[in-house]
Sequence to fold (311 residues):
Amino acid sequence: MSRVVLVTGGNRGIGLATAKRFCAAGHQVAVTSRSGAGDDLDGLFVVKCDVTDSESVDAAVSEIEESLGPVEVLVSNAGITRDGLVLRMADDDFSDVLDANLTGGFRIARRVVKQMMRARWGRIVFVSSVVGLGGQAGQANYAASKAGITGLARSLAKEFAGRSITVNVVAPGPVDTDMLAALSEAQRTAMLGMVPVGRLGEPAEVAAAIEYLASEDAGFVTGTVLAIDGGLSMG
Amino acid sequence: MSDNFERFTNCAVDVLSVDADQVVLDATFESLDADSLDLVELVMALEEEFDVNVEEEELDGVLTVRAAYDLILSKL
Fold:
């Protein structure tokens, strides 16, 4: 069954891999990005959206609804990093990351869930991070935002369970994306040393898990946090 | 039927997926198969239709069409 899928931050990395996977499976896929542009977006409905701005979120979703129909599957993936040690982290560095990664997810979910309620069916998947489970030196803001996503997702899962709307979280470990490329060689090596599988993950491997959670078959799976991290979070 | 009640009914029909003749003043939301989420959704639609603002706590004890309709009317 073809669904209308929205992937925020879908112009690169895990978001893009996810959008392409849904597209290849025959779904109608919209992606949002801050610039409304990106490379290699053939077949995707690209919309400009700033998840830190409710009006921008509303306008973007309205545009998708008019062109493709109500959003049935939301992959909330848009996120930013602004790394630094806590002692040198300004208030804005913390709150801006929270606003984009956590509150942004709230804004987009709130906007699309109304139509899912009407349809009595919906799938929401939040892209969190393994650092939301274990914390990460230099990423207090990012880790806090990603941990917050779990509380948000599970609350949504409970509020909307009666409408056949499931809400789940994936928590990727180190995945080969631009975001990870920003790390120093030493940081990458140290991170790899903590991954039992001994390699970086591929965006497509995260996309596959997201596709499952958004599928018809996953109707009994809600409020879960699925780590896709090569075993990193086993401790 | 007053114009206001007709607007109210249209919202209820749209949001609750019921027939217009089920939306009578004495009907309970339970009898319309509407739970608390439906009620919140209905109120959001009514806020938009009537350009009013309903606070969350005002919904306490709103169990019937009459109670909801009176609540909206009191704000016009």
Remarks:
- Chain B touches chain A at residues 35, 37, 41, 44 (CB under 8 Å).
- Chain B has a mean pLDDT of 92.
- The longest helix of chain B spans residues 36-50.
- DSSP finds three helices and no strands in chain B.
